[in-house]
Design brief:
- The protein is built from 6 helices and 6 strands.
- The chain is α/β, with parallel strands linked by helices.
- Strand 2 and strand 3 form a beta hairpin.
- Helix 1 packs across helix 2.
Length: 154
């Protein structure tokens, strides 16, 4: 699975201005709703429900909020670079500045887990993360996320 299969250029936010985890999830839900045609409320509630199980802040300033929605027919991703890091209740208690949102159909099963693993591997690559943090242009961020060099080394 390639990142181009999950995220489109218009799903990359270079300057997300939020002050809390809840606000970040609301903004991402709103953007996702516009891109994939599912209600913002449905997406937001799915993300909140998942966060109640435990934070999707995976550490090192990265969060991968995710959830399953019955209305979807394929996996969708969004990426956001925050202007200011926020508390995300991460496993390492560090503030988050990079968020990759992943939404999957209810029936995704193993594909959902493969996509999560794929995103997680990419965002554990310190060279990729360094480039993402050093770039504030959405087109450049998309190029970094989908470049073959980044995906082949993870």
């Amino acid at each position: 699975m390639e990142l181009e299969d999950l995220v489109r250029p218009e799903g990359v936010l270079a300057h997300l201005k939020v002050t809390s985890k809840k606000q970040a999830l609301q903004e991402l839900a709103a953007r996702a709703a516009g891109l994939i045609g599912v209600s913002e409320r449905s997406i937001f509630e799915t993300l909140l429900e998942r966060e109640r199980l435990g934070s999707t802040g995976v550490g090192q300033g990265i969060a991968i909020p995710h959830g399953k929605l019955g209305e979807l027919d394929r996996l969708h991703g969004l990426f956001a670079r925050l202007d200011t890091p926020i508390d995300f209740e991460s496993v390492d208690d560090q503030p988050v500045d990079l968020i990759f949102l992943l939404l999957a159909p209810e029936s995704a099963g193993a594909d959902h887990l493969k996509a999560l693993a794929r995103v997680s591997r990419l965002l554990r690559n310190s060279a990729v993360v360094e480039k993402l943090r050093a770039t504030d242009d959405a087109t450049a961020l998309y190029a970094i996320l989908t470049e073959p060099a980044a995906t082949s080394t993870v």
